[in-house]
Amino acid sequence: MPAPDLVTAELTLTGRITTASNATFLGSIGNVAVVYKPMAGESPLWDFPHGTLAHREVAAYLVSQVFGWDVVPRTWLRDGPLGKGMVQLWQESDPDQSAVDLVAADDVPETGWKQVLEGQDENGRMVALVHEDSPALRRMAVFDMVVNNADRKGNHILAMTNGHRHGVDHGLTFHRDHKLRTVLWGWMGDDLTAEERDGVDRVSEGLHGGLGRNLAGLLSAEEIASLAARCARLRLAGRFPAPSGETPAVPWPLF
Question: What's this model's pTM, rounded to 2 decimal places?
Fold first, then answer.
């Protein structure tokens, strides 16, 4: 059976993700499972222009493609049962893996994990937020710095069976002001690898070509200029930054 045209073939709704803050549906296009977020279901926000979250999700995918690391699953705009919106290929994550976790504060693994913060749970027990120390997650952290991700929660990271990590839910990205909120702070001060530097350079160069042209229909000129400036600052610093500014360093809730 030939693959369906993912832009024009009928999109059928099969369920709804009720935990999402914006209207989010499971669907299918032929035999292809997708996530569908209609623009009409976006909740108004005080700091992001209304009706732009779907565009930001697609912009994040385009930047991910230029990085070349497959952080964001294929994402595109199209019409659907509830109007125009963002559609993304569904990813079946491994329920036995978790790239980010809360553990007892005295039980943080000595190797293979990075501790981000420590605090008390609802029962007064000391817990630590940790994430795995892996190249895949480092690449996602670099991606988040470039796109200015304001909402990298633990459950926005999908651990795949083959060790790959996908990032999803990128509606709160590309703000012109510093908005980075993430659970992936474990590499603060570490030097970027050659691969990571090359990825930032590809995005920076792409803004002068095809990437810049494609983003022009999704983001404002100010937002694209801020994206270019973030690439330049990160490349000049050559290392993972620490939290800065008045923006909270981590999203809430964490998952």
Answer: 0.95
